[in-house]
Amino acid sequence: MNLMSVLAPASIPSPPADFSSFSLGPLTIHAYALCILAGIVLALWMTSVRWRRRGLPEEAVWDIAIWAIPFGIIGGRLYHVISSPDAYFGVNGDLSLIPQIWRGGLGIWGAVALGAVGAWIGCRRAGIKLSTFADVGAPGLLLAQAVGRWGNWFNQELFGAPTEVAWGLEIDANNPNFPDGTAPGTLFHPTFLYESLWCLAGVALLLALDKRFRLRGGRLFWLYAAYYTLGRLWIEILRIDDAEMITLFGVTQRLNVWTSIGIFVFSVAMFIYLTFRARKGPEASFYLPGREPAAEVGAAPAGNKNETVKQDPDSGSSTGSLRANLAETKSEEDNSRKPGTPGTAK
Q1: How far apart are CA 257 and CA 265, in angstroms?
Q2: Hey, how many other C-beta atoms are within 10 angstroms of the C-beta on 135?
Q3: Among the ranges 98-102, 209-213, 278-282, 313-317, which has the highest mean pLDDT value?
Q4: Is 270 exposed, middle or buried (0-12, 13-18, 19+ CB in 10 A)?
Q5: I want to staple 257 with a disulfide (CB 3.0 to 4.6 A). Which of 69, 104, 253, 318 is the partner?
Q6: Chain segment 318-332, per-residue pLDDT in tens
Q7: Which DSSP string do the residues of 184-242 spell out, in sequence order?
Q8: At how many degrees (to 10) do helices 130-148 and 108-126 cross?
Q9: What pTM value is reported for the model?
């Protein structure tokens, strides 16, 4: 046995089937659910760190996440059911499987789309722009996807075509996901690993670009979408699990392939548009109009420390106590010019 054979594994083993879940008293804990949960926790941690560095109110990120996470999970499940309907609505379909998320099956674009609806609700309540939350949370979202993909490894699902590469994935021949007519011992592309590594590289890339260019106004989020779909495109082509097939321009491909292409093109266009728009004016506020904290709007005039300065969300001009103070000052100056006024130079 030489050194290379020790360092380079002949294949990647899948965990035993009984590792996919375990009992904890009356509860059954599923590894897939734990991977999803671990990804959410890490994403929240990274998002909260980036949130604090922007000087945003710390409690607001949790208020928004409370809305975004459940909406995202529901949206991810709905997208999976729609894009892989045979298991639920087919000849041998079972509708009772739809809510059984622990068996696997969360579509990222359904999670992002409906999660954005939940985030929008939370942002409106917190007075934060949705683009602010999207930019801050984009790297954390990629991190969550990198960790969550390992749930597919525990479930022995969503692997790629047969391969002879040294890192080929072993799948139990008696597993329901093992392709019919394939010889036992066949290795498959570990697409879960490809996507996990792609997402981790994306986290580093987004953080570096954000530090260098200060991407705001939704640009970092659209960069995330373009990056992820670029990787998902070639990874999706490798997969052999059942999926809805769509024919466009005479080419038949998986629904997720066409979805990735469409979102990639749209994301690049949005990034370019927002970049040109950002060059035309000053950096936008993180807050919704009229919801900026006093420190961002401006300090109170000297001599009126207890007064606050409010900003007109339509004109952007200072109103309220500042206008009153200016009027008061002007009145005093006019009076000082009248002859006979006490204190006036004669």
Answers
A1: 13
A2: 26
A3: 209-213
A4: middle
A5: 253
A6: 333 333 443 444 444
A7: TT-EE--HHHHHHHHHHHHHHHHHHHHHHH---TTHHHHHHHHHHHHHHHHHHHHB-S-
A8: 140
A9: 0.81
